[in-house]
TrEMBL record:
The keyword Glycosyltransferase applies. Keywords: Glycosyltransferase, Transferase. This is Flavonol 7-O-rhamnosyltransferase. Belongs to the UDP-glycosyltransferase family. One of its GO terms (molecular function) is UDP-glucosyltransferase activity.
């Protein structure tokens, strides 16, 4: 393994090491959590591989020298394409391979910790890495806290019915319950019952926190270009187009996150529905993965002639989009989505009606929560390979821009609840304070222990 790059950080009771999982839906909210911990006085070292270093840029710009990167070369793995270090380049079936590759950094991390004069006093790591990070922390005799980027209902379902999980995920979630704490990007007012059940039945301690929806780190003009990548339409042009829309809540935003690519038939159905509906829209189209499943080599194909036929009606953006800024714009009324947790939270914060097409992972539990229990979303389609009926979907698009829909009213009520949770004095704000206090206490305890050891020598 080639040389590790590291810029040392200052000593202090609140120095922690953060180990993220390299997928947008995991690393971005963990960086948002890190931002909140830095604001509360902690000092942070973040372990990344070279192609994920850019995710740290906003934190480095805002918090240097209290945050430092620890860069390891990405370990090779026989199942991973050469040069791939991020999940958005791969189908979800490759997640265990990414975790196992990163697990090869166990011993280099132990060596790094032991070489530090003032090493981190705790590890904060993504829950999917728990199969090795919990043991790493135990080996180093420091606590491990798990960050959970999934919603609480999904995690409760998974750990309550472990037979539903593949062995890799069963091990990860079982190990996470042995950590010193669980930090969920959710809020008590939405998921208090499940938070309590996880605390009582599985974690067996009180260190289970709901700290969401975590506000995004912002640097520069509205933070538009800090999380982005290559895009076919610059963000300022997207916003200008939205500004030109005269009617509030009249635009349908369509996006399926960084992990989902639609098949040719699915793309055709969505395109036909948009044409038939006549609604104004923004459609975010993900770049094809480096390696498609099921021999599907026609993913993300926009139907021939579609963009010409809808010119003036909508925008098709290939690549990265300023999603949160789009959702918060007055012209956007609904969001056709896979209902991934980060996307759902962004819609909640924006007060936008969700049109749910759950496909994999926690999407089904999220849709059940928001559509069936809370009533702030409409279930449109179901399943990774299902193809929506274009005529029915067109009707839903039109109806979703109707201001008086009961689901829209409930979505706006949920928005107020979420914003109250994250403002000063709110439940999530207070939980963030408690997380920071707990992590700082680990440092204080370690300092006292070292004093005792030295005095006995």
């Amino acid at each position: 393994m080639s040389e590790v790059k590291y810029s040392g950080t200052g000593a202090g009771g609140g120095h922690i090491c953060i180990i993220p999982f390299p997928a947008c839906g995991h690393i971005l909210p963990l960086m948002d959590l890190t931002h909140q911990l830095l604001l509360r006085g902690l000092t942070v070292t973040i372990m990344v591989t070279p192609k994920n270093l850019s995710y740290l840029n906003p934190l480095l710009a805002l918090h240097s020298p209290n945050v430092k990167p620890l860069v390891f070369p990405f370990p090779s793995h026989p199942s991973l394409p050469h040069g791939v270090e991020q999940m958005q380049d791969l189908p979800i079936s490759f997640l265990p391979d990414i975790v196992n590759a990163l697990g090869k950094l166990y011993h280099p991390l132990v060596q790094w910790f032991r070489a530090q004069q003032s090493p981190p006093v705790a590890i904060l790591s993504d829950i999917v890495l728990s199969s090795w990070t919990v043991n790493l922390a135990s080996h180093l005799n420091i606590p491990n806290i798990c960050f959970v980027p999934f919603n609480v209902a999904a995690v409760y379902f998974w750990i309550s019915t472990p037979s539903f999980l593949l062995p890799f995920y069963r091990e990860a979630f079982t190990m996470s319950m042995q950590s010193e704490g669980l930090v969920f990007n959710s809020f008590k007012e939405l998921e208090s019952t499940k938070l309590g059940l996880i605390k009582e039945k599985f974690a067996k301690h009180c260190r289970v926190w709901g700290v969401g929806p975590l506000p995004p780190v912002k640097v520069g003009d509205e933070g538009l270009n800090e999380r982005g990548g290559a895009t076919s339409i610059p963000p300022d042009q997207v916003i200008s187009w939205l500004d030109s829309c005269k009617v509030d809540k009249s635009v349908v935003y369509i996006g399926f996150g960084t992990q989902i690519t639609l098949t040719k038939h699915q793309m055709k159905a969505v395109a036909s529905a948009l044409e038939e509906s006549g609604v104004r829209f923004i459609w975010a189209v993900k770049e094809p993965m480096k390696r498609a499943e099921d021999g599907d080599d026609d993913q993300s194909l926009i139907p021939h002639g579609f963009e010409d036929r809808v010119k003036g009606q909508g925008l098709v953006i290939k690549g990265w989009v300023p999603q949160l800024t789009i959702l918060k714009h007055r012209a956007v009324g609904s969001y056709f989505t896979h209902c991934g947790w980060n996307s759902a939270l962004e819609a909640i914060v924006a007060g936008v009606l969700l049109l749910a097409w759950p496909m994999q992972a926690d999407h089904f539990q999220i849709t059940r929560l928001l559509a069936d229990e809370v009533g702030a979303a409409i279930r449109v389609c179901n399943g990774l390979r299902s193809v929506p009926d274009a005529t029915k979907l067109a009707r839903i698009f039109v109806e979703s821009t109707t201001v008086g829909q009961p689901q829209r009213v409930r979505a706006m009520e949920l928005q107020k609840t979420a914003l109250n949770a994250i403002k000063e004095g709110g439940s999530s704000y207070q939980a963030l304070d408690k997380v920071a206090e707990e992590l700082t206490s680990f440092g204080c305890n370690r300092t006292e222990m070292m004093k005792t050891i030295r005095s006995s020598l």
